[in-house]
Amino acid sequence: MQKLLIKGKKELFGKINISGSKNATLPILAATILADKVTLMNIPLVKDIFTMIDLLKFIGLKINISKNKNRIEIVNSKNKIKTLAPYKLMKTMRAGVLVLGPLLAKNKKAKISLPGGCAIGTRPVNLHLFALKKLGAKIRIKNGYIFAEAKNGLKGTNITFPSISVGATENAVLAAFNAKGKTLLKNCAIEPEVKDLVKFLNTLGGNIKIIGRKILIIGCSKIKTNIKYEVIFDRIELGTYIIAAALIGKKILFNKIDPRIIKCEINILKKMGVNFKIQKSSIEVDKSNNIKKVNLMTKPYPGFPTDLQAQLMVLMTKAKGTSKIKESIFENRFMHVPELKRMGANIEIKDKIAFVKGPTKLTGAEVMATDLRASVSLVLAGLVADNRTIINRIYHLDRGYESLEKKLRHCKAKIKRI
Ligand code: EPZ
């Protein structure tokens, strides 16, 4: 199994290019089931994307990837679509459940393996199924599979989500895309990735509007063919590297991004004393010495994202005093804490709140990655710790960070895959 070896305390200096968003690309790839001929640009070449492509190929779409251009061409071939998402393709990537909505919308039926849980939680799909039933789908669960059917097609209706879910919002939008009549979704997730999916569907000929936490979908009857679409940048990758720069950067520049998308993260980091120079489409992070403590909780967008909680915790170890961060989205997203403690962090957890005492010196150690964002928090800790850090099970990292070592080495980090 591959590992990462990091020699800490190397000051970072230079420029980091931010890749396209994994969490925007996944639902947009699922949406290509509804399309005819599509070219997607700015695609992050990470493991989860290849898993989703394998699933779409299994379903029957013709796909070719031009890796050097981060571009995917998809043709919804005339041959038969398989309305099945098998366990073997779903077990490593829960977002495969997003093909349920489009298969129902296009083929009126689907058999989808129930996505397994993962390190951060049980990851149920009850909210997805709740919305699809409201749209008229017949759903039953048997032998670990979801059997969904809508013989006479789906019918637009009003749906209020009992709680906010990114995936359930995306599946409902995808299913309602060509449902008869209007669908009004309330209490929706409005992450930038949800908005990017809606923008893609409107490029495809859809008629979808986001108003606050409501999404209005007028059923689409005619799709456009031969469309090109560029996926939004990855705000979580950007936030991750901004925190790296705050931890041990001299000066790092991020271009071709939209700072407005990460307003909440910038405000929190400014409160902690991180030095920013912000332009219309770029951010520069300069040396930030006296990091201050902060208290916050993770929230649905536009609040502080749960996907940056582990990374922010590493910065908190440098802050004077005790910082607090409450994880309010997932039930078990502190798997990075025991590993950070082995590197010298002083963190206690009580009722889903992590109390991070600082400043503490982190020392290099051999550590274990458990999930995507926990793994990258260990990379950040390794960059700022003294001596060497070895990170095991880095396949978690490869699911969501494109060319991580290359981007960091480009900024003078001492990091390599062994
Ligand atoms: C998306 O997951 C992201 N994944 C996650 O990023 C992200 O952490 C999460 O949204 C929250 O922002 C993708 O977009 C591919 P949810 P998703 O449905 O859609 C509960 C990463 O690191 N829930 O918003 O699965 C759920 O258990 C990944 O890139 C139900 O109870 O998240 C959780 O507690 C990790 N029933 C909460 O809602 C449901 O039917 C939010 O989950 C669905 C969700």
Written overview of the protein:
With 418 residues, the chain is an alpha/beta fold. The protein is built from 14 helices and 24 strands. The strands form six sheets. A four-stranded mixed sheet has the order 22-23-1-24. Strands 2-15-17-16 form a four-stranded mixed sheet. It has a four-stranded mixed sheet with strand order 4-5-3-14, covered by helices on one side. A hairpin with a 3-residue loop joins strand 16 and strand 17. Helix 8 runs parallel beside helix 12. The longest helix is centred in the middle third of the chain and has 14 residues. The chain is globular and about 65 Å long. It starts with a strand and ends with a strand. The chain binds ligand EPZ. Ligand EPZ binds next to helix 1, helix 5, helix 6 and helix 12.
